[in-house]
Amino acid sequence: MHFPHVTIAVPDWVGAFCASWSSGFATVQARAAFVVALSQQNVSHETGGPFAAAVFDPLEGHLIAPGVNLVVPSSCSAAHAEIVALMVAQQIMGTHDLGAAGLPALELVSSTEPCAMCLGAVPWSGVRGLVCCARGTDAEAIGMDEGEKPPGWIVALENRGIRVMRDVCRVEAAAVLQGYVAGGGLIYNGRCG
Ligand SMILES: [Zn+2]
Fold first, then answer.
1. Is residue 82 flagged as an active site residue?
2. Would 136 disulfide with which of 110, 146, 162, 168, CB 3.0-4.6 Å?
3. Catalytic-role residue among 46, 60, 82, 107
């Protein structure tokens, strides 16, 4: 028997967009503004859903890896922006554990709070910080399903040493979600029963 290789690749435009970003990544607001702009670009390029994420070295103000939602174009329900960003970062770092000895404390910034799947991926990734722009309720407001998340998820992450910040650039991030649905963007949830 033979089965296909599974490949996830960020779209070609992402590299040029990252190179063109001139505002830097020194502050959490700047990092969130970049990720929100990346989510808008994913909508404009029609390369996936209205979500983006990125892994940063926050102390140095460096972008490590971007990610965008690729669920529909890659035929992969797991290709959420956070998962893509973490996988690209892990390839760059050459390890499954972004919290490994010798690596800086890395931060995942997501244009919308992680869904149930991505929430599970955060502690396994080794990142030491999570920054969320829009809330899960902002995604649900346009019909996206966020899945069942434990109500104490923020405390649970912080108990694992992962610092959580919410609502950074929330208004701008939620506007991207609203613009996506207003522009006829596909709401692509899996079958829910
Ligand atoms: Zn997700």
1. yes
2. 146
3. 82
